[in-house]
Specification:
16-stranded mixed beta sheet, 16 strands, LRR_dom_sf, alpha/beta
């Protein structure tokens, strides 16, 4: 059994022996995850209901049955449900009509996370989401969904969604329809994660969503229409785009003037460009920049030295020794020049430093040796 301050995970029959003690010791836990079910699911759920103050969040990994899900619908305080489907779902009694009926009983559900979900097999279930009145947070993870189904869902439900995550691992010729449908229908979004990593988006028109604070785009290529609005209130942007020109990158950043946090995978197609560096440097509210991947170290150093208000820098991937040393030297120079400011540099793994750092430069490590 894995226990964290906020979650209890039940993985096997052995966990049942300790569940009574653990749940009594941690009555405030509200998040439960099952990775296995029979023959202990009913007894485990009974213990949790008895000892915990309330269960608000439930995660069911693949393998759950109709009976398991039926028992979950008796948790009247449940606000969040994650369902990971499998090819055995129908064999376990999970049919389209059954699932749509059971979900309709969870009247207080605010967040739903569906993983590996076949919308052709569960069409009624997708349509039934529009009747979930309190649903504000929806994740469609590794799901193939037709344009018609997606359009219907967002027209019915888009105006009430505050968080939306859509992940599709299929290679589509163009995923523009899906992203456009989101911006056209989801007028109250605060968070959007759109990951079509093997697909491109072309001539997409950004429509400003005033509430949108955080946006993640994972695409092969992204080209915006010149008719796009600015995302005036966007504060956090994460970009992982495999193929992008400097002009396209500049255009996208120019639409996000209020950014405070920028996470980027610098595509190999992006060459050092004064225009791109200028676009990042012009983000006067930027407090943190994160580099998820890059090829041209000189380009990265030009970027970090041009940002005048940013003091928090993150390098998410392991760095070759030569890259590591040059980055340290660059930040030593920045810290010495801007001695009245404090800087945080986060690196992937711990390295031994042979000399003391400037007092206003602090290095943290994401992973220890």
């Amino acid at each position: 059994m894995r226990r964290r301050k906020k979650q209890i995970t039940i993985e096997n029959l052995e966990d049942l022996k300790n569940l009574e003690i653990i749940s009594l010791q941690c009555p405030q836990v509200k998040v439960i995850e099952f990775t296995a079910y029979e023959p202990f699911f009913s007894e485990a759920l009974s213990i949790l209901k008895r000892n915990l103050k309330c269960i608000e969040h439930m995660k069911l990994d693949e393998g759950f049955s109709y009976e398991n899900l039926f028992q979950i619908t008796q948790l009247f305080d449940l606000k969040s449900l994650r369902l990971e489907m499998s090819i055995l779902s129908e064999m376990n009694g999970i049919t389209d009509n059954c699932l749509s009926t059971l979900l309709s009983r969870l009247s207080k559900l605010e967040a739903l996370h569906l993983v590996y979900f076949d919308t052709f097999q569960f069409r009624n279930t997708i349509n039934s989401l529009s009747s979930m009145h309190y649903l504000k947070d929806l994740t469609l993870d590794c799901i193939e969904i037709s344009k018609n189904e997606f359009s219907f869902l967002l027209k019915e439900k888009g105006k009430s969604l505050e968080r939306l995550c859509v992940v599709n691992e299929m290679a589509l010729d163009d995923a523009s329809f899906y992203l456009q449908a989101i911006f056209d229908n989801c007028t109250k979004l605060e968070f959007l994660h759109f990951s079509f990593v093997y697909s491109q988006v072309t001539n997409f028109i950004i429509v400003n969503i005033p509430t949108l604070i955080e946006l993640s785009l994972f695409l092969t290529h992204c080209k915006l229409s010149r008719e796009s609005d600015g995302l005036q209130n966007l504060q956090k942007l994460r970009l992982s785009i495999e193929e992008q020109t400097n002009a396209e990158f500049f255009h996208l950043l120019s639409l996000c003037p209020a950014l405070k946090s920028l996470s980027i995978k610098i595509a190999s197609s992006l060459r050092p460009s004064e225009k791109t560096i200028e676009a990042i440097a012009s983000l006067i509210n930027l407090k943190m920049i994160e580099f998820e991947a890059f090829e041209h170290l000189d380009y990265v150093i030009q970027i970090i030295t041009s940002i005048q208000n940013c003091r928090h820098f993150v390098f998410r991937k392991p760095l070759p020794e030569a890259f590591f040393l040059r980055i340290i030297e660059a930040f030593e120079e920045i810290a010495n020049k801007r001695s009245n400011e404090s800087f945080i540099l986060k690196l992937y793994s711990r390295r031994d430093l042979l000399r003391p750092l400037p007092p206003n430069l602090k290095i943290k490590y994401l992973v220890d040796k």
